[in-house]
Amino acid sequence: MPELPEVETIRRGIAPHVTGRCIEAVTVREPRLRWPVPADLSARIVNCTVGGVERRGKYLLFDLDRGRLLIHLGMSGRLYVLTPDVAPIRHDHLDLHLSGGLLLRFHDPRRFGAVLPLDGDTLHPLLAGMGPEPLSQDFSAGYLHRLARGRRVSVKSFLMDGHVVAGVGNIYASESLFRAGIRPTLAAGRVSLPRYQRLVVAVRETLERAIHQGGTTLRDFSDAHGQAGYFQQELMVYGRGGEPCRVCASVIRRQVINQRSGFYCPQCQR
Q1: Is 2 a catalytic residue?
Q2: Choices 3.40.250.10, 3.40.50.300, 3.20.20.70, 3.20.190.10: CATH for 4-118
Q3: Residue 99 in contact with residue 21, Cβ under 8 Å?
Q4: Is 111 a residue of the active site?
Q5: 3 is annotated as an active-site residue
Q6: Tens digits of per-residue pLDDT, 100-144?
Q7: Sheet of 114-118, strands arranged across
Q8: pLDDT tens digits for range 226-244
């Protein structure tokens, strides 16, 4: 699933091309996504100008004259900026035809994504209850320490909870905990304030580095121009079970934590 750095990479890739352009038409080839494309999508967004593209967690939000357009990439979604002469291929489910001879194409083989119009400032259920952005000032050690008090859930699951912080997925939770020297199975309520301070720094550094590298390509992620991300070359623990730690040479361990694969170094992470 595209995580925060991948979604931010796509946002930065498409924003300069779509901002200021008018949506002149919409072509829907397959409306049966995880959240079905509304039948009145065209009526609600055609003739609207895109004022900008924002990101909230793993969701993209297009600011329009009338409301907003939410796009979620799901497990395998991609967005491409193309010219109208590029013929659609299998799994190209939707096109936004933009002024100036461009189109934005939504591609999603698994159909777990969403393209949904939002009215005004109405908060969609998909966005309700989300925690602070991990790159914002609201995400702090004090905030995490207070929220974790008495919690027995693992610190990795705690960090991946979208109600705690928005958009920190499996890859970047694993990598951030390694940078902070915290074992992912440790109960969130047992992590001290100084260790949460290290974790906040680690989360920010990990995400910023991943965004700089264009995200992580483990299977099929690519950006708005079809380019793969390169952060996978810097992964310290994720996906490296059985391999030596790049720091201490101990064997990286894999452990299922809350039904998700977790990876850690038993020597570097305590």
Answers
A1: yes
A2: 3.20.190.10
A3: yes
A4: no
A5: yes
A6: 999 999 999 999 999 999 987 667 888 989 999 999 999 999 999
A7: 52-56, 59-63, 68-72, 114-118
A8: 554 456 678 999 999 999 9
